[in-house]
Write a structure and sequence with these properties.
This protein is mainly alpha-helical. The chain folds into 2 domains: about 70 residues, no CATH class; about 240 residues, Orthogonal Bundle (MetI-like fold). About 75% of the residues lie in helices and about 0% in strands. Helix 5 runs antiparallel to helix 11 and helix 12 runs antiparallel to helix 13. The longest helix has about 40 residues.
């Protein structure tokens, strides 16, 4: 296991190098003048040249890329052209909000989608199965931004069941930052009032973000359950008199959950990326909102930093998923 994990960690390096090369190339060929935008419309050519030299953008593209990679090795993601803050500091500020939103969404999707998929498979071609498939089709068909606006209007404005923006009441003092996840930090501090306020802001955007993943998890769970139920070993176990409940809980679910775990890990990565629109609509101060604002300003350093961070998180999630395979099914061996 240790050798396998070390090898997988080393495999992240070429992935990140390729990702950095792609994002760097795109940032340099996109039309626009980021230095001019950072300097302002009243800046003289001398000021622009000085700013370009200060940011290293007066050098050749290979030199710029080498300097960028050297900075990454030191943990330096560069400096924002617009805010003049270190991108690494901004990432540390915004990552917890996106992680909290994504984790809540994947918990929603798994808690609803897995039981729906199991029930759908156990009652194949019956009312529960048809209902689950129709709901899955509904959730995957509508775009997240449309659902976000509908839910925001209905639950937040008309029914006043949730705040329509932000992560915490603006006039309240949030709990002391330990993990950066407000719900977790408030529980660690035993501040249940803050936990309630954080949860009140979290549940609606997380629910909206979870719908696409919920549909995928339901479909994959149903398909893997049906495959496991039709396995010859299950038929043999039924023939020798093993109770149906034991067969489902001990054998079928374990075999079916491997595919479900795979789709959950993939959906986690997609939710991180898909949070951009939901964060923008709900004014959620995470990486998605930061990415949108940076894109509108042609501020490429934050864009490249966010892309690299997504790549790191997605790679680590895949490694953790592989480890979970072995925990769920000890028969799996790592080569």
């Amino acid at each position: 296991m240790q050798v396998y994990l070390v090898r997988r960690l080393f495999l992240i390096i070429p992935i990140l190098i390729g990702l950095s090369l792609i994002t760097f190339t795109i940032s340099r060929i996109v039309p626009g003048d980021p230095v001019g935008l950072a300097a302002g419309p009243q800046a003289t050519p001398e000021i622009r040249e000085r700013l370009a030299a200060e940011l290293g953008m007066d050098k050749s593209l290979p030199e710029q890329y080498i300097n960028y990679m050297a900075g990454l090795l030191r943990g330096d993601f560069g400096e924002s052209l617009y805010t003049r803050r270190q991108v690494a500091d901004d990432l540390r500020t915004f990552i917890p909000a996106t992680l909290e939103l994504t984790l809540a969404a994947i918990i929603f999707a798994s808690a609803i989608g897995i039981p729906m998929g199991i029930i759908s498979a156990l009652y194949q071609n019956k009312l529960p199965d048809h209902s689950a498939r129709i709901l899955s089709l509904f959730f995957v068909s509508f775009p997240a931004f449309w659902l976000a606006m509908i839910f925001q209007t209905q639950f937040g404005v008309n029914w006043d069941l949730a705040p329509v923006s932000g992560r915490f009441p603006r006039l309240d003092i949030p709990p002391n930052q330990i993990t950066g996840l407000l719900t977790v930090d408030s529980l660690l501090a035993l501040d249940f009032a803050s936990f309630g306020r954080a949860l009140e802001h979290l549940w609606l955007p997380a629910l909206v973000l979870s719908f696409g993943a919920l549909a995928s998890i339901t479909r994959i769970t149903r398909a893997s359950m049906l495959e496991a139920l039709n396995n010859d070993s299950v038929k043999t176990e039924r023939a020798i008199g093993i109770p149906w409940r034991v067969i489902v809980l001990k054998y079928v679910l374990r075999n079916a959950f491997i595919a479900t775990l795979t789709i959950i890990s993939l959906e986690f990565g997609w939710l991180m990326a898909g949070a951009v629109l939901v964060e923008s609509i709900f004014d959620w101060p995470g990486l998605g909102l930061y990415l949108v604002e940076s894109s509108l300003r042609l501020d490429f350093q934050p864009i490249m930093g966010i892309t690299m961070m997504y790549g790191i998180i997605f790679s680590l999630v895949n490694i953790l998923t592989d480890v979970a395979y072995g925990i769920i099914d000890p028969r799996i061996r790592y080569g």
